[in-house]
Amino acid sequence: MFEEAQYFAPVAAQADGSVVVELSASHPGFADPVYRARRNAIAGLAVNYQPGTPIPTAEYTEQEHEVWATVTRELGIKHAKYATAEYLDGAARLRLPQERIPQLEEVSQLLEPLTGFRYLPAAGLVPLRDFYGVLADGLFHSTQYIRHHSVPFYTPEPDVIHEVIGHANALANPRYAALYRLAGEAARRVEGEEALEFVSKVFWFTMEFGVMREADELKAYGAGILSSYGEIEEFRGMDIRPLDLSAMGTTHYDITKYQDVLFRAESVQHLEDVVGDFWSSCDDDSIAKLVAARV
Ligand SMILES: [Fe+2]
């Protein structure tokens, strides 16, 4: 999931217990009352979800399953060219359905035997500390809706394609899953909001938008790149910088555009040594020093 409020459609619980998702006028589904009703119903599943119970089944249309099948097919071609070996390993182990949207409960059942991770339903924005904190418990907050069928390769918000194709395939790889857990432990350890934001930005520039050198080619492992039909063709032309904690934790990003500044790890080991070790040990003081070192 992306972590900025403006990227999520606001979700409001009504007095009668129903849930309304407020889509902006520019959202592809804005003028589709059937889609909007489905969005409201799916958000209601997350709002009313009781932890420890199976994730309720979301209703999808045949058109929406076709969106999943189309995007899965097209991204699969691009992943073979652009994704890291570890991500491809995760995808091969997870074996997501190709022709239909998997339910989040099904994703959990596929993922848990591999790395212990399970999914939690999220209606929209989850507060940073909750979103990251539960990663330490092997839990991943995920939206359940899918983008509007009229534009299969575009979504203004993180949908189930991003959450599952982008993140679950990565979470199926033990080395990446361990990094996600460490990010969660870091989010639980730090106390100040500035330190938490720093931890989340390092996550953004690694597990969401990270790139990696692999046999003299630049590959992607970040879920945001690997779930974006357009961005995956563009990342090699972006401003690629060396992995640097101070820079990642303080660089501003605009979630509404393609990410034009990316940070490259030289290997998985390098990512583990720099970012994994940071998340393993960081606290408010060490982060304050990293912020000061940036100036
Ligand atoms: Fe994400």
TrEMBL record:
CDD domains assigned to the protein according to its UniProt record, in alphabetical order: arom_aa_hydroxylase
Domain Biopterin-dependent aromatic amino acid hydroxylase family profile stretches: 1-295
Pfam families in the cross-refs: Biopterin_H
Keyword rRNA processing recorded: no
PROSITE patterns xrefs: BH4_AAA_HYDROXYL_2
Cofactor: Fe(2+)
EC assignment: 1.14.16.1
Binding site for Fe cation: 162, 167, 208
Family stated for the protein in its record: Belongs to the biopterin-dependent aromatic amino acid hydroxylase family.
Entry keyword set: Iron, Metal-binding, Monooxygenase, Oxidoreductase
Annotated source species: Nonomuraea diastatica
A GO term for molecular function: iron ion binding
Name of the featured protein: Phenylalanine 4-monooxygenase
